[in-house]
Design brief:
Radius of gyration of chain A: 24 Å
Radius of gyration of chain B: 25 Å
Distance between the termini of chain B: 75 Å
Strand order of the largest sheet of chain B: 5-6-4-7-8-9
Largest sheet of chain B: 6 strands, mixed
Order of helices and strands of chain B: EEEEHEHHEHEHHEEHEHHEHEHHHEHEE
Distance between the termini of chain A: 37 Å
Oligomer: heterodimer
Strand content of chain B: 15-25%
Shape of chain A: elongated
Structural class of chain A: alpha/beta
Number of strands of chain A: 12
Number of helices of chain A: 14
């Protein structure tokens, strides 16, 4: 009988619908997008279905009146949009190879949630609810300013009017809002209630591995502003010779970069900056120049090139022509003989990502393939794109969370280095 | 202008690069440790008797020690048993028993004293296992922690299911030293009365009153959790672990692949296939598994040929985990021990010095293996009946987790070929039952 060639544990057989629940401006879409990005990065095909987007395609937005509970016409349209989204969910999970679908809408009434539960039952999907509850007005207002006033609904409004209208929109939902009740009505459902932006969580009936991972991820992420700096070690002796892997030290230019990095980070003047390196000499030498405490992570070591370690690309082509060709065919899944693949790297780096989510300001001094994997997570790049992301030597990528995503700035520290990038053939 | 960077030297045992001066390593905490906080953590259990506090304390302690966080549990009940040599009856626990209350308070204080000693001598986490059901008691503990600079994390176990409670009593309380001279019915009756003594004064962790505390409330035997203010990495790992364990009865079977071609040649590592004897073992394993008639058995292998070949002979679906691959012997791969001694005498000696932390050049250490295997352990906790077909060093790591073996013992645990270990949880630990499949069955 055949086996599953999973790098990790066998996921659920049935696909899962993650259902967001909560009043507007509670971070549902933020969570939905972030969770989707994380799950896709770990190799679980996931997609967000935002009902608001369906609604925007159906009607032009005028004002909060659309959301008034007594607006029968609007209610009809809104229900149709939800159903249309669910049809696409079904298609994604049953026919397009999706494993998880995130149904992003308010879903604040039992009636709506019961409908979704029936939908799940009919199609053999598991259902997991993620409810976000927050009554801190400053948090709600910040959310509105960050993502709502600039959304397409308010493209012709000034910010004050937009805020005003949106607050009235929230009120339309409040009267009919039935939060998940773990003690009574909803005691048999699987869900997590995120309270006050993660200060508190209520978790009910986790059914399987993926739900447990989702809960763990949600409990580790935070919304504090912070900056992550990603860079490679300074140019190494092996880099100069075009050799793969190994554990060589920095070249003179590499050392110069390390000093430049130190100057740059001093200017950046970040509070409580943590520095992480791999356990390979070149990243540690780079960190030493910063004159700050740093932590070594074996998980940040460069991809293991197995039998190709310390060869240059020409030698690889000569000695292992088949391997060389195979790698270009599918660089993400390709595993070096007795070595690793990008896919293996992702699995190895998952605890690093989880800890990065917990942390605030961090500098990660790592390696080309590792940096590509981490970058792909932050910038939501596919497995296909990941092995070709540009991560040149002596360049720092500064990542700051903004709205639903991540702003990235590239800072070249003006110390020359060899180019180690190979484009997609 | 920054001073010139320090020179680096590589620690010969662990192969870690460290800054050095005049050839000597400088003290520098650079290697990532799990417990990132400088301050120790005090985990405090909360709950009525027979809710599973000691079960959780022991299991959590075992897990944390395995992942490298020095942890120790302090069970106040044990202190009480040492103080009051003979347990007479539940009357000792009556809330109006002044003498009893005094002794119990002293025992708690004595245990906290030992906690302080432990945490100041290198311990990172202490688990304070007692009912701690009143706010007054918990405040005392928090003052103690504050004074000493410890973080506090509460683990409350709430259960109102009389069947579960009765089952707990039968499973663990009847066997306790308190009830050696009682018959079952007497013991159960007394214990129920004991629980009653705590019920009136029980103040559960409250959403409002305790909103600034860090805690997890485990309800209905793990079907529901309330998590409040997780402060740091270690608390987050603890919560994740507690949410993944369960108490459903099940068995875990551990074995190595059948004898491989390289085994026959006395060479380590590599990716060879099974020898003739190895193939025979695989067949016997298949028969053994069938005879055991295990419900919903999952089979896991590594991604190396020899474990997969072994699983293939079972005729059931199996999953491959790269994380279960054998320890990477780096430059020593496919060498015989004699060859290693010849070519790398220093390495050979270093390995014997500290086999757990020793890392092969360009390879791994047992310590690295444990980190690599942590997700496997986490998933094993979630699962029910599983057969893990793996390798010698890997099996030693997994076994050390289940049997609570130290880092020093781990690399020397006996895991011979063609032997299946069946692990079944019982009371506060695990039972290990061994079956040699060489000559039996085939």
């Amino acid at each position: 009988m055949c086996s599953k060639t999973a790098g990790g544990p066998h996921l659920t057989n049935s696909p899962t619908v993650i259902v967001m629940v909560g009043l507007p401006a509670r971070g549902k879409t933020y969570i939905a997008k972030k969770l989707t990005r994380y799950l896709n990065w770990t190799g679980v095909p996931t997609k967000v279905f935002n009902v608001g987007e369906y609604r925007r395609e159906a009607v032009n937005y005028n004002s909060y009146d659309f959301f008034r509970p007594d607006n029968q016409d609007a209610m009809k349209i809104r229900k149709q949009c939800a159903l249309a989204a669910l049809r696409d969910v079904k298609s994604y999970l049953s026919e397009e190879g999706g494993q998880l679908a995130v149904f992003d809408a308010t879903n604040t009434t039992r009636e709506r949630r019961d409908m979704i539960l029936n939908f799940g039952k009919e199609n053999g999907f598991k259902v997991f609810f993620v409810e976000s509850v927050c009554e801190d007005p400053s948090v709600v207002e910040t959310n509105i300013m960050e993502v709502k006033v600039s959304c397409p609904d308010y493209k012709d409004c000034n910010r004050t009017d937009a805020m005003d209208d949106f607050l009235k929109r929230i009120e339309c939902y409040r009267a009919s809002y039935q939060p998940l009740e773990p003690d009574h009505y909803d005691k048999d459902l699987s869900f997590i209630k995120v309270i006050d932006v993660g200060r508190r969580f209520l978790v009910n009936r986790i059914q399987d591995y993926i739900q447990s991972k989702i809960v763990y991820y949600l409990m580790n992420m935070h919304v504090q502003p912070r900056t992550i700096y990603l860079c490679r070690h300074g140019e190494s002796e092996h880099n100069l010779r075009g050799k793969l892997g190994g554990d060589s030290g920095l070249s003179p230019r590499g050392k110069k970069f390390a000093r430049a990095l130190s100057g740059y980070l001093e200017e950046q003047n970040q509070k409580n900056l943590k520095v992480w390196t791999s356990q390979l000499k070149r990243t540690i030498q780079t960190a030493e120049a910063l004159d700050m405490p740093y932590e070594q992570w074996k998980a940040l070591n460069e991809i293991d090139a197995g039998v190709c370690e310390e060869l240059n690309y020409e030698e690889v082509k000569e000695m292992y022509p088949e391997e060389f060709a195979l790698r270009d065919q599918d660089k993400y899944h390709y595993r070096y003989p007795t070595g690793e693949s990008y896919q293996d790297l992702v699995q190895r780096l998952e605890p690093v990502i989880m800890e990065l989510e917990r942390q605030e300001n961090v500098v990660v001094v790592c390696h080309q393939a590792v940096m590509r994997c981490l970058l792909a997570y932050f910038l939501d790049k596919s497995a296909d794109e990941m092995p070709y992301l540009k991560c040149p030597l002596h360049t720092v990528l500064k990542l700051t969370p903004v709205a639903y995503g991540c702003k990235v700035e590239s800072i070249y520290l003006n110390v020359e280095a060899v180019n180690t990038h190979r484009d997609r053939p | 202008m920054a001073t010139s960077p320090r020179e680096l030297t590589q620690n010969p045992l662990k192969k870690i690069w460290m800054p050095c001066k005049n050839g000597f390593p400088e003290k520098h905490t650079s290697q990532r440790k799990v417990c990132m906080t400088n301050c120790p953590t005090l985990i405090v259990t909360v709950g009525l008797p027979a809710r599973g506090k000691t079960y959780i304390s022991k299991k959590l302690t075992r897990y944390l020690n395995w992942i490298g966080v020095s942890t120790k549990e302090f069970n106040v009940g044990q202190y009480r048993r040492e103080c009051v040599k003979i347990y007479k009856s539940f009357e000792f626990f009556r809330p109006d028993n002044e003498e009893g209350l005094k002794i119990r308070k002293q025992c708690a204080a004595s245990a906290l004293n030992d906690v302080r000693t432990y945490l100041s001598e290198g311990g990172q986490v202490a688990v304070f296992d007692a009912t701690n059901t009143t706010r007054e008691r918990r405040d005392t503990i928090m003052k103690f922690a504050d004074l000493n600079g410890y973080k506090v994390f509460f683990v409350e176990l709430v259960c109102d299911d009389p069947e579960v409670i009765a089952s707990n009593i039968v499973q663990v309380k009847l066997g306790s030293p308190d009830y050696t001279d009682c018959n079952t019915d007497e013991a159960v009756e007394d214990f129920m009365k004991r629980i009653k003594c705590y019920e009136n004064s029980y103040e559960t962790l409250d959403e409002i009153k305790d909103r600034d505390l860090s805690y997890i409330k485990i309800m209905e035997v793990g079907s529901r959790y309330l998590v409040n203010r997780v402060l740091d990495h270690i608390q987050s790992r603890i919560v994740y672990y507690l949410m993944n364990i369960h108490i459903a009865p099940r068995s875990i079977y551990l074995c190595r692949h059948g004898e491989s071609e390289l085994n026959v040649k006395g060479k380590i590592g590599g990716d060879s296939g099974l020898s003739a004897r190895g193939k025979l073992f695989a067949k016997c394993l298949g028969k053994f598994i069938q005879e055991q008639n295990i419900k919903d058995l999952k089979v896991w292998t590594s991604q190396m040929k020899r474990t997969i070949q072994t699983a293939e002979a079972l005729g059931v679906p199996y999953e491959q985990w790269k994380a279960l691959n054998e320890i990477d012997a780096g430059v020593c791969e496919e060498m015989m021990y004699e060859e290693i001694q010849d070519h790398y005498p220093l390495e050979f000696a270093l390995r014997d010095q500290d086999k757990y932390r020793y890392r092969y050049p360009k390879g791994e250490s047992y310590e690295d293996l444990v980190q690599r295997l942590e997700p496997v352990i986490m998933e094993l906790e979630r699962q029910e009946n599983v057969l893990v077909i793996c390798h010698q060093a890997v099996m030693r790591c997994l076994l050390a987790y289940f049997l609570d073996k130290t880092a020093e013992e781990l690399p020397y645990l006996k895991c011979p070929l063609h032997t299946v270990l069946k692990l079944t949880p019982v009371a506060y630990g695990e039972i290990c039952c061994e079956t040699q499949l060489e000559s039996i069955h085939c």
